[in-house]
Amino acid sequence: MNKDIATPLRTKAILEKYGFEFKKSLGQNFLIDLNILHNIVKAATVTNETGVIEVGPGIGALTEQLAKQAKKVVSFEIDQRLLPVLEDTLSSYQNIDIVHSDVLKVDLHRYIAEHFQEVNDVMVVANLPYYVTTPILMKLLEEKLPIRGIVVMIQAEVADRIAAKPGTKDYGALSIAAQYFAEAEKVMTVPGSVFIPQPRVDSAVLRLTVREEPPVELIDEAFFFRVFHASFANRRKTLLNNLTHNLLTKAEKTMIEDVLSDIQIDPRRRGETLSLEEFASLSNALYKRVMD
Questions:
Q1: How far apart (Å, rounded) are the C-alpha atoms in residues 227 and 284?
Q2: Cα(248)–Cα(252) distance, rounded to whole angstroms?
């Protein structure tokens, strides 16, 4: 008998055994395709020297495949109803720790220090709930964890936005924020039919390879984030108008025009046309004028 969790029959049997009912509020969609899971593990290049952080294990389908390859898996599950299920489905694996916590509220630096003392290669691998994809990814990146990268199954539309290039319809503040911290690559698109229950949209596997050094030099990282978020506040507005209304004040419009002229950026351009390097140049130039 095939004991893998991620088959339609085994998943259905587990759900029936525990009388489990899906909570829409937790964005629960369980994978039932082993090939997809194998591709996720492969995309993360998990080896017996890798420590893995997982978010939202569900009934353990991905957790199981990770445990077969990794040295250790630490998995965060917010839904208390799933704890006895996971204790059952993953009972034959000795290299898994299930933590009943909201990953957005835990000190991941501490968990990595405590659980991965014998591991130098740490990856985050997860099938993320759609409703908290962006907060979780930004926490993982902004906290500058000692990880090699992140491989996640997320909504395809969000994966497109994160990996987008300047000048495309998907390019925005999320693209810049993610690409500042990591190199982003969409590995594959995944249809809704490989989940129980089936989501109404396609998913995608996204790989983020964490940068050892930022790709641009900044005077002030926090100010850089404020600049590009302001630049996308209204996608129909020009860069000059967005910066005037959402970063500084109307009284400083002339100063903003001067800065844009100095760094040879047309004030009529829109935020989605600027590269990461151009936003860095803009941020540094504005910071010098505003803060000096």
A1: 10
A2: 7
